[in-house]
Amino acid sequence: MGSDHLCWTGVGGRNLHDLLPLPYTEETVRHVAERIRQVQEILERTILIENVSSYMAFRSSRLEEWEFLTAVAEEADCAILLDINNIFVNAFNHRFDPLRYIDAIPVDRVLQFHLAGHSDHGSYLLDTHDHPIRADVWALYEHAVRRFGRVPTLIEWDDNIPDFEVLAAAAAEARSRCDLALAPERLHATG
Amino acid sequence: MNLRELQALLYQRITDPDGANESIGEERGLAPGVLEALVHSDERLSAFERVDIYANAYFYRLLECLSEDFRPRWQY
Fold first, then answer.
1. Residue A33 belongs to a domain with what CATH number?
2. In chain A, what residues touch B49 (CB-CB under 8 Å)?
3. Does B58 touch chain A (CB under 8 A)?
4. Which domain holds residue A50?
5. Which of these ranges, A43-52, A69-78, B18-27, has the smallest mean pLDDT?
6. Of B3, B10, B57, the CB nearest to A31
7. Res. B19 pLDDT band, cuts 50 70 90
8. Which secondary structure element, helix H or strand E, spans residue A140, and what is its range?
9. Which of A57, A80, A114, B23 has the highest Cβ tally under 10 A?
10. pTM (two decimals)
11. Neighbouring-strand partners of residue A112
């Protein structure tokens, strides 16, 4: 299963080595979806597109970020990799309700979650993958699990990497929180 | 402004060795108000400050690459 970020990284053959946001418009939906379809045709499989963290938003946008992500996935008929930390970071940076974001994403398209830690710079949050997962992000993860079910989850930690025991504990916490979030449903299902 | 033009403008601002701040933008011939008309701002961060986050990240990434490539030679 392959995935890529829903973003742009360069122009005119020159690369910025970063994940930059796109304007959320119907034109961009068509532009990106066409390219995703080409990739899927060549690979002969469905790929996942991942929401990125961002620090700027464009005045030309006509869709909310979650509407844009959904529109691209549906137009390209691809799956979604939902980065829960990125939703939290963007909710702070662009002032939206992260629950509204998660509740708007189509359930059947989400095939993987990402979790990570971020840095608080006061006026903005930076997606640095170098901290433990924050409590607010764990809470958002539980909300996502309740909506999307038991989805494979990857913890991203690629700077200031701690001892393996700390990473293993974070993975165990993800499993535990997933179980907890689904417990009422299991109890209901078993009567 | 179409998508490619927007990307080209942001590329120019992000990779400018002096950063994305407003005075440098004017020195480089960016008409006043252009970036503000493209990028949202609020009381926390101006449009220039938001683009500057990417400019800082670009140069820290370059420094990191150069450091990884050349540090072993400095040790000799």
1. 3.20.20.150
2. 123
3. yes
4. 3-190
5. B18-27
6. B3
7. confident
8. helix A135-148
9. A80
10. 0.92
11. A81
